[in-house]
Amino acid sequence: MGSGRDEIYFGDLGIKLKDIKDTFKELLSNVKVICTDEPRRVKSLVTVKRIEDITDDIMELRSIKTAEEVSFMKKALQITEEALWRVLESLIPGLREYEVAGMLEGVMRYLGADGYAFETIVASGPNSAYPHAVPTSRELRQGDVVVIDLGAKYNGYSSDMTRTITMGSVPKEVKNALEVISEAVNNAVDVACDGVDARTVDSAARDTLKRYGLSKYFIHSTGHGVGIDVHEKPRLSQSSKEILREGMIVTIEPGIYIHGRYGIRIENMILIKKRKSEVLNKKPLIYTG
Prior knowledge:
By secondary structure, the chain is an alpha+beta fold. It is 33% helix and 21% strand.
């Protein structure tokens, strides 16, 4: 690499930001522009005429997956699903939320995960009414609704899935709501394909809940892109202006949250294709034991 370049794209070099100054001391003395997705950190490390933020460009490129990236993410999801189903088989009242989370993470590691896409969510009873609940010392009880949101990483790529299970007998209201959320997932998947705007997918899920009088309890977007990070472009919401493109991998995750009572969320990952997207999950939307 010569020392007369005007611009450097550090994202292509595979180096750690903290090593920039020492590693490229001579090169940086002649650089006028640095293009990076970490402008603040780079600015604190080097002196240069202009630092250009190319975060949006990088995220746009990352939103379309290569065949190899898809294979890594399918493997990550396979590990996630297998871990969840193994743990569900041994789920009993009396286990604490954080114990279940630990079991899930341990099994994911055992099955080959090289990490976790995010901190595993296990939220039972009234805790399930919080979309981003963290595992607590609360014990699982008969009649509980339990939301489990987890994701393994494989070769650096993330997965993300959610299932809502019931501990023993639950009211008919809960059973019906589970069916409605499942229907919302399927309806959103059915319209998601290349060229469709993200709002259309969000509307498909939201309108399903509206027909059953549940839309007021749906308090987040329908989904998001997944890749190296668990949250990437695009965002599937009413405010989104993004268009789905072939090769994107996104989540579909409608949910309802009734404060003080229970919450339900079901989440699948799909690969956007020309006409009909591919559901990457192999396990059913509703766990029946």
